[in-house]
Design goal:
- β1 and β2 (40-42) form a beta hairpin.
- With 127 residues, the protein is mainly alpha-helical.
- The N and C termini lie far apart (73 Å).
- It has one domain.
- The protein has 3 helices and 2 strands.
- A two-stranded antiparallel ribbon has the order 1-2.
């Protein structure tokens, strides 16, 4: 459960970093953006409206992923919590099952000759 919480926090921090990273024009379109001494020139063939739409799409996708992470985390946390709480019981039941199978095999090996002895006595008396 600790690891689940840790990984969720790491993932959300990374998504927040991506969100802030994509807010800067230079980061998203670095190959089309030329910084010269005192000049910031955009040497791309991209329409500014397309750039705005693309940046908004990226920020919305990251925002949806953050919201999805917050939605899924309680479900995953509950599942791991139930697993952690039920694991000792499951392990003990597995030990009991193994002991039962061993006991059943031992009883089969010891009771079968006794049952056959009774049949052999009946067969011997009938002849």
């Amino acid at each position: 459960m600790y690891e689940t919480t840790y990984q969720a926090c790491k993932h959300i921090n990374y998504l927040e970093y991506l969100k802030s990273y994509y807010e800067r024009f230079e980061n998203s379109y670095a190959e089309n953006y030329e910084k010269q001494e005192g000049n910031n020139n955009f040497s791309g063939k991209i329409n500014p409206r397309d750039i705005e739409n693309d940046l908004n799409t990226r920020k919305n996708a990251v925002g949806k992923e953050i919201a999805h992470t917050y939605e899924v985390f309680p479900i995953a946390y509950q599942a791991y919590s139930e697993y952690e709480n039920n694991f000792p019981i499951h392990y003990l039941l597995e030990i009991i099952r193994a002991d039962f199978l061993l006991l059943r095999q031992t009883l089969k090996e010891s009771i079968m000759p006794i049952a056959q002895l009774g049949l052999k006595i009946i067969n011997a008396m009938s002849q």
